[in-house]
Amino acid sequence: YYAYGASAGREWYLNPSLQFKDDSVNDADLALLTNVFERLEELLEQPEYRNFTWIGSGLQRHYGHITIARQDVNYSVPKHRSSLLYQAVCKIVNEVDPTSATLALREGEFDLKIFTKVALSEVNSATAKISGRIFNKGHGIRLIKSKMGLKLNCGKILVCGDSETDLPMLEECLICSPANVYTIWVTTNSQLQEKVLLGAMANATVREITIRPQGDDDDDEE
After folding, report:
1. Residue 47 contacts by C-beta under 8 Å, 6 or more apart in sequence?
2. Contact of 180 with 157, CB cutoff 8 Å
3. Domain boundary residue among 118, 139, 165?
4. Quick one: average pLDDT of 124-138?
5. Are 32 and 64 spatial neighbours (Cβ–Cβ below 8 Å)?
6. Are residues 156 and 94 in the same domain?
7. Torsion of CA 128, 132, 134, 138, to 10 degrees
8. Nearest to residue 158, comparing CAs of 173, 176, 146, 138?
9. Is residue 124's pLDDT more than 80?
């Protein structure tokens, strides 16, 4: 069978009768996140910020976090405008959660993310004390493993990724079954390549495959 994961692994869907979510997010946390999202919608209606709805991921609300684009892959947004967006988002988050007890803002190259913080028990208690950590895709793997009783040490595991947020997913699988993990990454980011090869894959066998573009065959027909 197969399952659909969403919101960095905080939501899982297998079929209409079998779907579940991370229960470390409570209603109060989600209310704060909704407040931030509504204020971000208002922000992006302003002419100076409207273009951020048209690039990358735009503005997206997930279960437990929000994503807002700040740059595109062609770097067409001037740095000062991206910085102004960051400052405006910081202001909104600080006003909604002035003690930073619940929400955390993280700055990426292409987007900004606002997360609810993870409970101390990470994925299994909505009443645990907040630890300050952020739910990641590694927690998502742990969640479905726990809920479904998966034995990841049996059989092969293929992990695919293209960004740094995918690394915890790979790391979690390597902890469970380092000998059975295979991974494919699509990226031109040299720093990410190094983290995959030297960091996350430290306990696994690395096989690097270079695919030559078509037309580079040595024995092309004339």
Report:
1. none
2. yes
3. 118
4. 62
5. no
6. no
7. -70
8. 173
9. no
Residue at 174 is within a domain? yes
Q: What is the pTM of this model?
A: 0.74
Residue 72 has pLDDT above 80, yes or no: yes
Q: Are residues 95 and 156 in the same domain?
A: no
Expressed as residue numbers, the domain containing 207 is 151-212
Q: Which of 118, 139, 163 is the last residue of a domain?
A: 118
CATH number of the CATH domain containing 111: 3.30.70.3080
Query: What are 5's strand-pairing partners?
Result: 12
The count of domains in the chain is 2
Question: What is the longest distance spanned by two Cα atoms in the chain?
Answer: 71
Tell which residue, 141, 123, 147, has the closest CA to residue 20. 147
Residue 138: its H or E element? helix 137-148
Q: Where are the alpha helices (DSSP H) in 16-136?
A: 27-44, 79-96
Eight-state DSSP code of residue 52: G
pLDDT digits (tens, 9 = 90+) for 4-59: 888 888 888 888 888 888 887 888 999 999 999 999 999 999 999 999 999 988 99
